[in-house]
Prior knowledge:
By secondary structure, the protein is α/β, with parallel strands linked by helices. It has one domain (2-185): Flavodoxin domain (Rossmann fold), CATH 3.40.50. Helices cover 39% and strands 15% of the residues. It has helices spanning 15-25, 58-68, 86-95, 122-134, 149-152, 162-185; strands at residues 2-7, 32-36, 72-77, 108-114, 138-139, 145-146.
Amino acid sequence: MKILVLSGSLRAGSYNTALARAAVALAPGGVDVNLFDELGSLPLYDQDADQADVPEPEAVARLRSRIDGADALLIVTPEHNGSITSVLKNAIDWASARHRGSWLRNKTVAIAGVTTGQYGAIWAQQDLRRILGIVGARVVDGDFPVSRAQDVFDADGRLASPLLEDRLRNHLVHLVAEAAPVSLAA
């Protein structure tokens, strides 16, 4: 089983990317979890550039290939102005483009989000769930809000909460269980 993790944050000290890295470290046995950290290299989505007769941008080809090779995705999103980040929306637009096919259709996806406030990016997670549903992804039940990030990560960006580690491990186990029947059918 292969899980690809996307963080919707480009910030060097991002708590969301720290959670994505924690997911890689806490992968269940027999599960290969990898972080795709190139969202910042994607060009802005342009339908004119996403035509069969136009060369595919290299960064887009890498994103699509990594999604295609994964059995499931974990998407970790910060909350900007009550919604997902523009860089994450841009990646979803490239991955779900109509003209070359959608790499997200029927892909099993789990959602998580981290904020320094008290709500754990729940609005962003709701918007992400809606967007992914529209593009045809299979979004698993159960979001993963992490609030007060400054209190649950140490100075090196590692999870400092055994309870949160257990929750994240269980979130990944749930994702694997939901993705396994789809992966076996493919």
